[in-house]
Fold:
Amino acid sequence: MPTFVWLTVVTALRILQRNRLRAGLTMLGIIIGVGAVIAMVSIGEGAKLAVQKQIASMGANSILIWPNYTVVSGVRGSQGVVITLTVADAIDLKKKIPLLTETGWSRSGSMQVMSGGRNWSTTVIGASPSVLSIRDWAYSSGGPFTQTDMDTAAGVALIGQTVVDNLFEPGEEPVGAVIRLKNVPIRVIGVLSPKGQSPSGSDQDDVVMIPFSTAERKVLGTSFLGSVGGVFASTDRTEDVFDAVEQIREVLRSRHRLQGNRPDDFNIRTQIDVAKIQEGTSETLTGMLLAIASVSLLVGGIGIMNILLVSVTERTREIGIRMAVGAKRLHIMLQFLIEAMTLSMVGGGIGVLFGVTAAKLTSIIAGWPTIISGKTIMTAFGFSLVIGLFFGLYPANKAARLNPIEALRYE
Amino acid sequence: MAPLIVCEDLWKVYRVGDVEVQALRGLSVTINEGEFVAIMGTSGSGKSTLMNILGCLDQPSKGRYQLGGVEVERLLPDQLAEIRNQRLGFVFQSFNLIPRTSALENTQLPLMYRGLSLKEQRALASAALERVGLKGREHHTPTQLSGGQQQRVAIARALVTSPSLLLADEPTGNLDTRSSDEIMAILEGLNHDGITVILVTHEIDIAAHAAREIVIKDGHVLSDRTVHDRAHS
Ligand SMILES: Nc1ncnc2c1ncn2[C@@H]1O[C@H](COP(=O)(O)OP(=O)(O)OP(=O)(O)O)[C@@H](O)[C@H]1O
Ligand SMILES: [Mg+2]
Structure:
């Protein structure tokens, strides 16, 4: 039997080569289907990993609360006029909600930063020391500021890699250098490890981070002491995030005296929400592409079945000859099944090449990350084999059931 | 001499639309091992129908057919395939070679279904082709061979399995006199080696190669005579 199978594969390849155009057209559906599956899964997996990385960079269990200034127009008109979120809110949340491991707060603004002769426009964030741990910042050199720096409104800063690149010569040591924000001298005490882009596309490394008190009193200024741009909180465990969000809402509504159905004057977002939105869009896309791929594979399968039925008819006499010299039904059946599978396998192979090329091109042209895994390729390839087997079954069976004498007489 | 073929009261009825064609009407014949039999008869008398039944390609509508002691008429398709593969060689008027496939591969075909290794297949097929005088033509495809050469490939394919019975339905029907003589010489040689040969022909000088001549008319045996004693025991 192994010799028979091997010889039949060789015969199948020869027939395929003889009818190259016909075989090519037949395989088109499989090629497109397999190609689409591989391209789609590779792009999808790449996108998923990128989102996961971004989420990790934001601190997976972190919760962000920021004021909603436009709840009642006219009363809460513009930023800085009516204060809705304060340092006191942040401290009270931590006190009242045991699920929260920490709360922090920050304010930010755009500002020119200077060092020596250079200057650079960046985002200055005034943050409580806890923000650093909530958002999982790491340091490529130096280290964080402390509660003492906070208490004394010390002129110290942590700067992101983008700022380092724009203010310092390559090789120059930023830690210990003095930079200026609005003519206030600030000593660099640490460089933040690069985080890359945020899910919304902004550069998370283009940042100068200073103690909240320093920002409030010396750098950014404020019209109301204790007003914050955002409150950060985090929980120990990811599954507690949603409970924590509910409790935060309750505490803040009561502190802000929001009764009945008056809307919140703050917004809460978790990293899980962000992840959900991202996953949602990528799942929709994946679903659509999968549908296209399935239809394509189905069409490919039907194409194979069609061409095999033609082949069985064309080669009826040959089938008769084979039967006359002793081929059993299984032999005839296997012959056509092997032909179907050869078609779908060659189609699948070409499809793999197309898919991988498409994925690579996408990542080069569109700049999307792609992950081409061996598992994806094997699955797509295996699938094309199954298609060949499934759609080859009917024609193969039809051939095997021919009566030898009728097959031999067939004109 | 033991009987190789025993046919008793064979009937073959074809139905085409409302018309019933009785191709065989109670034909009985016994053929011994090692015989060289020529079957003759007018066109439409039922010669091919009988050959197809003897060759296990077709089955009778009624009657008994015993081949080498095996009751054939009740066998399943795969069992018939087994008999065709193990014991029979069939040569057709129209050669019936697989197109675009080399002489060697055509000859290997029955051995492939026997499950022999490629090496054994090649060796036996080459020997068979050499026997029919086609050494050096192993890699020619049917279109690259003359009619006589194609028929010799078909004979090589029939004898490669060392069958006990070789059936040839008008093997020289499409050939000129010279090619016919070559084919007949090969068949005689095979019979000489002990293979039972049954041959259908319209030509008296072809039939003259056989030791026994059976004439069929309207689906039954009209005459059955031993022409001269050349059969082997
Ligand atoms: N498949 C078939 N369907 C219907 N009738 C058939 C079929 N095969 C043969 N016949 C009929 O059976 C009869 C015998 O045919 P067969 O082919 O055996 O004749 P033959 O003796 O071989 O003739 P020839 O010398 O022309 O080859 C003929 O009348 C033919 O029409
Ligand atoms: Mg005939």
Summary: Chain B has a mean pLDDT of 93. Chain B touches chain A through 30 residues (CB under 8 Å).
